[in-house]
Write a structure and sequence with these properties.
about 300 residues; Rossmann fold; six-stranded parallel sheet; 11 helices; 12 strands
């Protein structure tokens, strides 16, 4: 090898090392409302971690053990006190989290919101929101069901108090046009199955079940529908899980509306890092990650990625 080329390569490698080390202490903290046993949030965490490795920053992911807005607010305040270079938050309850998020943005820490809170994020001072606008997404699901000829639905809310889920059900109702009853539950598999089974038994005219989370409500809803033996009942869900994707492949469910949660945290880390380093940021106030409809045609390929916590 020409000695000058060799010296240039060595010098270039040294410069890369210096550039990388200069960013080594950058730290981004993400605070979400997601539960550890929900596969959706494993995807979110994975997206942020992968982006952090690629960008050369530190990434910490924290969340309350239950759907607890008081605890989430405390976690945001704790993150602010640690003075990270950037913060990513979800906003499932604007009233409960407003003060904590505003304190973060007022402190000068750049904040990006993802997943929930599209309607309030800008007013809280966040730089950008990455996710799907839940009401229009719900409306598209409702319209799709109406096109299928469905007449009467239940919408399972497994996380009462999460305004994003309220928006989903409201959108489904407006797009569907027919009766849509909200069925409040917890995220307990047996409770969801039991309540859905009871709802179907009490009203034989129900022909549609809409779950707001594939793993938390979609899978037990399929189980409940199958146990009745009523083949006219169609099950659909927001979000993905390996089990629900398999149900779509097996013909036990019709479709899933994917919000692409991997992209939410992945892009959050990428955008924050570029903003911290160079002041670069897309001009859009909202980067829409969904909805993306997954049917039996797409499900096999998506299932393989779902097992890797990417889809």
């Amino acid at each position: 090898m020409n000695k000058y080329i060799k010296l240039a390569l060595i010098a270039g490698a040294a410069l890369v090392g210096v550039a990388t080390s200069s960013f080594a202490e950058e730290r981004i903290i993400m605070i979400s409302h997601g539960l550890a046993d929900d596969p959706y949030w494993n995807i979110v965490k994975n997206g942020g971690e992968n982006a952090a490795k690629q960008m050369g920053v530190k990434f910490d992911y924290v969340a309350p053990e239950t759907f607890d807005m008081v605890r989430m607010s405390q976690l945001i305040t704790s993150a602010v006190n640690q003075k990270p270079d950037g913060i990513i938050v979800t906003i499932p309850d604007a009233d409960a989290l407003k003060d904590a998020i505003k304190s973060a943005t007022a402190s000068g820490i750049p904040v990006i919101s993802v997943n929930s809170g599209v309607g309030v994020a800008k007013s809280f001072g966040t730089l950008i929101h990455i996710g799907q606008d839940e009401y229009p997404a719900g409306k598209r699901v409702g319209e799709k069901l109406k096109e299928m000829g469905q007449k009467k639905a239940i919408c399972i809310n497994h996380e009462v108090g999460n305004t994003a889920l309220d928006d989903r059900c409201r959108g489904v109702s407006d797009g569907f046009g027919g009766p849509v009853a909200v069925l409040p539950t917890t995220n307990d598999y047996q409770e969801v199955k039991s309540k859905v089974t009871a709802a179907l038994a009490s009203d034989p005219q129900i022909d549609t079940i809409v779950a707001l989370s594939a793993g938390q409500a979609g899978e037990p809803a399929v189980d409940a529908a199958q146990s009745t033996g009523n083949t006219k009942v169609k099950v659909v869900s927001f979000d993905l899980s390996p089990g629900f994707l398999q149900d779509i492949i097996d013909g036990k469910a019709v479709f899933a509306a994917e919000a692409q949660p991997y992209l939410q945290s992945y892009l959050g880390v990428v955008f924050l890092t570029n903003y911290i380093r160079s002041g670069l940021l897309p001009a859009n106030s909202l980067i829409e990650s969904g909805p993306n409809f997954i049917t039996a045609k797409e499900a096999p390929k998506v299932l393989e990625l779902s097992k890797k916590s990417i889809r």
